[in-house]
Amino acid sequence: MAARIFISYCNGSDATRQLRNEIAAALSGHKVFIDELSVRLADDWRARIYHALAECHAVVFLLDSGALKSPWVRKEANIVLWRRALGASVMIIPVLLDGVTAPDIEAAGLAELLEVQHTRPARRGPAGGGGVVPEVVRAVSRLRVGGRRSSDPMQEWTSRVVEALATLDDGHLAVSADAFGAADGLAELPGRTAQLNYVAHQLLHQGIDRRACDTLARIKRGFSDEQRRNLIEEIIPTWVDGDAARLLLHGAADRRPVVLLNARLDRTARQYFERATCRSFSGYRCAVAGELVGEQSVADVSAALQAAVRELARLPPRIPIEEIVPPPGLSFLVVDPGGVPLPAVGPAIEALRRDFPWVNLIVLVGRAHPDEPTVRRWLPEAPYLLLPALAKDDELVAYQLVEDLVQLVPERMRGDVR
């Protein structure tokens, strides 16, 4: 069975394009996606690229100096690394060209491409083929296509969105495709299933905005009530930037830093979690250390955090917390300091991280995006990761957008949609 292979590269070098073509020719028995050859000028190329990356079995990265500076190579790397972090068996084959070294790749923020298990960089050399092409072919030959595939939450998320879109007639599907930037080339795809997948991929990667919300309002009668509810529930977290959300999954499970998010609503952090995990609740769990209030002591804050950890681990009420058994998969705890000053929260967070290293912490730090000295005043020891800043009104605009989407769901079915 032919594998789907994506070749990621920067289009600035003639030598790299030549190597790209040689690799594609050597893999002619497979379905190879190259943006310049696979996307017509009139197509929305972003939609085609998202679609190809979400469905491919392997990605070959041609890493010359131009690729290290390319925002689209970075975007492509983020999507495929995101799939792998969620457990998908997509193969990554990095090829170092033009004297590019591992430190160069690390400096470009793409070090994860060199940390992939079961693959290694193809032999470094000039962008002219040589031993590179056979190495890539050998790597691809190790793929096992067909039969039972490993869990792929990104694909499963897409399938749920496809199922919700399936009742739309062709006219409504075309309207939705236009709103989500996937209209060009939709009619060329072979069959309705491919078209539905195409629109779903674009919706999930591009994310919802006001135009998408207004379009759903226009075509809402094209859905059954249940499918409209299901679709809205699935797409709500897509307002969150995917590259930022993926950082929640970065690094080894027992060594992840404390994640700091400049937001005020715990539901914002939940939506980051759902975006990062592609709403895959198998193997992932999330709890909230409810809004803390008043001038609580460090001991009070620690007690509140431990109560949330008990909930996260489903620990029976009378069992001592020292007997806790870490649940399988990844566990996230959202900490909402509320009215408690962060200097009182910091020591409790550091103690929790030492006592329960399996808990991944997401801390809301308010609207401000704190600098290093500010963070270290209340979190002096724990490694931390400050997520890319939300702009001043992003959180409230997203809140309004989500509430408008929820209004499209029949009141009797809204439940906890949000």
User: What are the low-pLDDT stretches, counting only 5+ consecutive residues below 50?
Assistant: 38-43, 117-121, 123-128
H-E order? EHEHHEHHEHEHHHHHHHEHEHEHEHEH
The averaged pLDDT comes out at 86
Give me the secondary-structure category: alpha/beta
Strand content: 5-15%
Q: Based on the structure, what is the oligomeric state of the protein chains?
A: single chain
CATH-scheme architecture of the largest domain: 3-Layer(aba) Sandwich
Number of strands: 10
Walkthrough of the structure:
With 418 residues, the protein is α/β, with parallel strands linked by helices. The protein folds into three domains: 4-141, Rossmann fold (3-Layer(aba) Sandwich), CATH 3.40.50.10140; 153-240, no CATH class; 242-387, Rossmann fold. It is built from 18 helices and ten strands. It has helices at 14-26, 35-38, 45-55, 65-69, 71-85, 102-107, 132-141, 153-165, 170-179, 192-206, 210-218, 225-235, 242-246, 266-276, 298-313, 342-355, 372-378, 394-406, and strands spanning 4-8, 31-33, 58-63, 91-97, 122-125, 258-261, 284-289, 330-335, 359-364, 384-386. The strands form two sheets. A five-stranded parallel sheet has the order 2-1-3-4-5, sandwiched between helices. A five-stranded parallel sheet has the order 7-8-9-6-10, with helices on both faces. Helix 3 (45-55) runs parallel beside helix 5 (71-85), helix 8 packs across helix 10 and helix 8 (153-165) packs antiparallel against helix 12. It is globular.
